[in-house]
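Thread amino acids onto this structure.
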């Protein structure tokens, strides 16, 4: 009884139908894109630490940089930990495992290469080994062997078996490493056994420490203990990165529902205005419907059915357009400080199904309640009152 008449009314009143649908489409796009970007933004800061299976990264910011030759050097401002400091950190409460590595830079005519010397059988060594892409990873007894990050290898046209020059030594590429995009903020271009890296700068120390802790809730306590060992130690964690981005992330988390409420309130006003005017224009139709026997319930059902269809169509179009926009956007990048350096983190914008469903119900309920009161008021009027305006 209702469906053919509903479709007829929707096609007959094209201006009203299109206005309602476009209103829903616009609101859906705003809600999904803002929430999708910010949720991905908030989550992205934790992913780099998951890729290296560590909770804290330690660096030491003393101005004792030593240059061993014109090409190989320790990064500016990143000095080495003493053996006593490493032992003290390892003995602290809440430290489950500790890995030490040596970060060095290679400068030559072709450009800049970051190198990390890994200590065999350490946690970070195992994490890097699990990311092997082609070939193999380093073994304990490897000498003058190197593993190269896959994008860097492709850029330099290096393959398994290629020889690369670092300082005054040559290293054979035995494998490539496949870091995910977010893990690359803690990745180097080339990986060596720590003995080979130390030989390049004629130094047996370490300048980067990776810690795995028992509970993330103990992070702040552990940071204080580390600072007591040496106040020049810089501590990087997902929380410290998140704190750096707090002006955006925290504001979003704190005012997310306020923002959604404001958007929905504006939607209610628009829908209320549009549908009130259009339903008022149909007072004569409603009067005729009541005259020929339509009940108040039937009229309400008819008008709400029209709006439900418009809402569904608008929501589907809004979701499809949002997904298209996300596809065009692809990844978003932003710069973050990482201890003594800075880097760029990238994340993919996505629209979780649970978020889409949540907004569908939220928008549908809000809109239907708004329209229901308008419809109820008009349909409850006597036919003579509706016809009096004509």
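Threaded sequence (390 positions):
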């Amino acid at each position: 009884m209702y469906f053919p008449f509903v479709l007829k009314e929707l096609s007959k009143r094209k201006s009203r139908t299109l206005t309602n649908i476009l209103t829903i489409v616009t609101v859906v796009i705003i809600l999904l894109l803002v929430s999708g970007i910010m949720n991905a933004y908030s989550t992205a800061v934790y992913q780099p630490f998951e890729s290296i299976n560590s909770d804290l990264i330690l660096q030491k910011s003393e101005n004792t940089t030593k240059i061993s030759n014109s090409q190989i050097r320790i990064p500016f401002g990143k000095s080495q930990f003493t053996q006593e400091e490493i032992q003290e950190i390892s003995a602290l409460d809440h430290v489950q495992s500790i890995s030490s590595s040596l970060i060095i830079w290679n400068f030559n005519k072709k450009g800049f290469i970051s190198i990390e010397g890994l200590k065999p059988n350490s946690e970070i060594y195992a994490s890097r080994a699990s990311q092997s892409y082609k070939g193999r990873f380093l073994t304990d007894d490897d000498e003058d062997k190197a593993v190269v990050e896959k994008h860097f290898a492709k850029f330099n046209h290096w393959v398994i078996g290629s020889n690369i020059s670092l300082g005054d030594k040559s290293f054979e590429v035995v494998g490539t490493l496949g870091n995910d995009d977010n893990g690359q903020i803690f990745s180097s271009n080339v990986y060596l056994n720590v003995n080979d890296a130390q030989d390049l700068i004629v130094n047996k120390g370490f300048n980067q420490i990776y810690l795995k802790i028992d509970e993330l809730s103990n992070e702040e306590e552990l940071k204080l203990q580390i600072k007591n060992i040496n106040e020049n130690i810089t501590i990087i964690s997902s929380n410290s990165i998140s704190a750096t981005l707090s002006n955006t992330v925290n504001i979003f988390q704190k005012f997310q529902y306020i923002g959604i409420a404001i958007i929905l309130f504006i939607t209610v006003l628009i829908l209320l205005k549009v549908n009130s005017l259009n339903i008022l224009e149909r007072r004569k139709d409603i009067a005729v419907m009541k005259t020929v026997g339509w009940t108040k319930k039937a009229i309400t059902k008819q008008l709400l059915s029209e709006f439900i269809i418009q809402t569904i169509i608008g929501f589907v179009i809004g979701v499809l357009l949002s997904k298209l926009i996300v596809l065009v956007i692809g990844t978003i990048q932003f710069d973050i400080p990482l201890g003594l350096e800075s880097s760029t983190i990238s994340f993919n914008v996505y629209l979780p199904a649970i978020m889409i469903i949540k907004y569908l119900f939220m928008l549908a309920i809000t809109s239907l309640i708004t329209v229901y009161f308008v419809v109820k008021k008009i349909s409850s009027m006597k036919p003579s009152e509706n016809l009096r305006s004509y």
